[in-house]
Amino acid sequence: MRTWRVGTISMGLALLSLGIFLLISQVASLDLTKVMLAWWPVILIVLGLEILIYLFMNRKEKPMLKYDFLSIIFVGIIGMTGIIFATLSSAGVLDLVEEAIGREQQTYELPAFSEKIDANVKRVVVDMAAYPFTVESTGDNAVSVFGTYSAWTKNNKPVLEKAEDYLAVQKKGDTLYITVKNLPESRGALVNSNAYMEGTLLIPDTVQLELAGEWSQLTVKPRTLKNDWRINNFSNVTVHLPNNSDVEIAASHARELRSDSGKWQVSEVKKISTVEVVQQGDGVVYAEDFDQDRINGVLKMGEGTHTIHLSDINTVNVKTN
Predict the structure, then answer these.
(1) CA-CA 20 to 30 A from 1: which of 71, 106, 174, 196?
(2) What is the 3-state secondary structure (H, E, C) of 6-18?
(3) How far apart are CA 119 and CA 207, in angstroms?
(4) CB-based contacts of 87, cutoff 8 Å, min separation 6
(5) Taking each helix axis from N to C terminus, what angle separates 69-90 and 8-28, rounded to the nearest 10 degrees?
(6) How confident is the model at residue 308, as a pLDDT?
(7) CA nearest 177: which of 227, 212, 224, 146?
(8) ∠ CA(115), CA(117), CA(121), 5° rounding?
(9) Separation of alpha carbons 161 and 147, rounded Å
(10) pLDDT in tens, 35-73
C-alpha cells in the first residue's frame, strides 16, 4: 500500500510559481498587487490536481493519503493572502491604497490661454477663484492667462490638459466674461489633496475691467491705463505703479491703506458690525459679533485721468518703481 503525503508537491509548485510570477513582475514592471490577484488561485488548482492525479494513478490499489501539515499550512497562508487581496480589491480598498502610495506632488505650467478681442469688446468681467493672481495691462488687443499650478498626480500625469479645464470664457454683446474654475480636489477615505494655482492675467489697457475675487491675494500692475478698472472682494491687493503714472486709486470699505510714495486722503472711517462663525458642532452654530474699522480713501498719481476702484479689500498697498 502506497502512502502519499499531500501538500509536498503543492508547496514546491507554489514556490516555483510564485518565483516565476515575481521574476516576470520585476522584468515587465508589473504591479505586485495584480500579480498576487492573478497568481493565488493556482495554489488551489495545484493542490486539487495533486490529489486527483494520485488517486487516478493508484485507483487499483488502496491508496493511503497523509497530509504534510507544514506544507499545507504554508500553502494555506499563501492562499489566504490571495483571498484577502481579492476581497480588498473587490471592496475598492486596494485601489485607494494604490492611489495614495503612487501619487506625488508635481508643479506644471498652466495651459496657456489667449484670445484676440475686436473693437466691439468694451468690457472684460473676470470672476476669480480663491487663487493668487497678477493682473497686468498690455497694449495688445488680446486677453491672456498663464502661470503654474501644483497638484498630487499619479505617473506624472498633468491634471489640466487644456485651458478649458480651468477657464470658462463667453462673449455676450460688448462684454467678455471669464470665470476661473476651481481646480480638481481629491476627497477620499485615505487621502485628501488640493491643487494650487498662481496665474497671470493680461488685459488690454483700452477696455474696462471688472474683477471679483474670493478673498485671495491680488497683484495689480497697470503699466498704462486708458480705461477704469474695478476690483472687489480680495484679502490683500498690491498695486505697482510707475513713477510717472496718471491714475487714481479709490478704495472703499478697506481695513488698511498703505503707500510708499504718497499719502492717502482718507474721507471716511466707519464701524461695521461683523458676524464671524468661530465654532460649529452638534448642529449648533456659535458666532461672535465684533466691530471693524472700514476706510474710504483716495490716492492720486499725476492727474488721475483713469481710476482703479477697490472695494471690500482688507489691505491695499500701493508701491511705485
Answers:
(1) 71
(2) ECHHHHHHHHHHH
(3) 10
(4) none
(5) 40
(6) 96
(7) 212
(8) 135
(9) 14
(10) 555 666 666 677 677 667 766 666 655 655 565 666 667
The string of pLDDT tens digits covering residues 261-288 is 778 998 877 665 555 554 555 555 555 5
